[in-house]
Design brief:
By secondary structure, the chain is an alpha/beta fold. The chain has a single domain, classed as Rossmann fold (3-Layer(aba) Sandwich), CATH 3.40.50.300. It contains eight helices and nine strands. α2 crosses α8. One of its GO terms (molecular function) is GMP kinase activity.
């Protein structure tokens, strides 16, 4: 760890295929344990009916998103299914400064960039059975073309699991067990960081 990262909160990168329950597990873990904060992803897509700006995502116009790209504000960004997604460097730094644990939920492409930039980060890959993944993403109201693209990418995403520190299988009907397993892993990684800090 460099001098700056040693005094900041533990960074936990959470990834996996769409529909695996990544954000749900992170939010439930934070709620149950009362510590940590999720870094909110930015996007140009429109909010779904149940989504709130600043809570689920930070919603940007394409014009404003491109301005931030030009300014170098994003640590990673990508165009996914016709919409832009990205993570602001400043949002990561603010979360790590103000909380003992900062959670960052992203796709596998974004996770690779973030873990390269922050080698001290710890990572989780959340997955469920392929058949269940297809069922979950099929209920999101996506266009047939977008749904087809998501399904074709599932296998490529699942193949990236070995690149992460810990893999959690979020079995149907066992969300509570997945949250407990995730929280235990986060607690261990935080303890490891505190040990390093205390002896640095």
């Amino acid at each position: 760890m460099n001098e700056e990262s040693r005094v900041m909160g533990t960074l936990i990168v959470v990834s996996g295929p769409s529909g695996a329950g990544k954000t749900t597990i992170v939010e439930k873990s934070i709620a149950q344990n009362g510590c940590g904060a999720r870094v909110i992803t930015c996007t140009t897509r429109r909010p779904r009916q149940e989504e709130t700006d600043g809570k689920d995502y930070r919603f940007f116009s394409r014009k404003d998103f491109r301005k931030k790209v030009s300014a170098g504000a994003f640590i990673e960004h990508a165009k996914v299914y016709g919409h832009y997604y990205g993570t602001l460097h400043a949002d990561i730094e603010a979360a790590r400064k103000n909380f003992s644990i900062a959670f960052l939920v992203t796709d596998v492409q974004g996770a690779a960039t973030i873990m390269y930039t922050y080698p001290e980060a710890h990572s989780f890959f959340i997955t469920v059975a392929r058949k269940e993944l297809i069922r979950r993403i099929s209920t999101r109201g996506e266009s047939p073309l977008t749904l087809a693209k998501r399904i074709t990418e599932i296998d490529a995403e699942l193949a990236q699991a070995a690149c992460f520190d810990k893999v959690i299988r979020n079995r149907t009907g066992r969300l509570s067990a997945s949250v407990r397993e995730f929280t235990a892993g986060v607690t261990l990684f935080r303890a490891m960081d505190e040990f390093v800090i205390s002896y640095a």
